[in-house]
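Bit of a strange request maybe. I'm writing a small parser for structure token strings and I need a real example to test against, not something I typed by hand. Could someone generate the tokens for this chain?
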Amino acid sequence: MKQFFSGDVSQPVHSSGIKGKTGEHIHCLFQGMLLPEEDEHYLILGTIKDITTFSEKEQELETKAQADSLTGLFNHTHGMELVTKALLAKNPFDTCAFVIVDLDFF
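Reply from user aminoacidic:
Good idea to test on real output. This should exercise your parser:
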């Protein structure tokens, strides 16, 4: 939210995490606008909604989509994304090796 209030984010909708009173992480959705007033002051008009439960469910679904439900191992698509990311991040002159094991009828 600091980006929104500092003017770095011009979108009327912004998602951010904040700390609650007891230190817990709360994921919030801020919808609003900054209305300019006199002397470089702004009026903030909007709402803040707690979307922590929604974010947790979204993360759970993403995790389930990336892994096999029986073994817990990454599926082919997510595995290829990880390999691609690792290859792009490494020095092209360094050596590396990947071992892929395909288990059938286990």
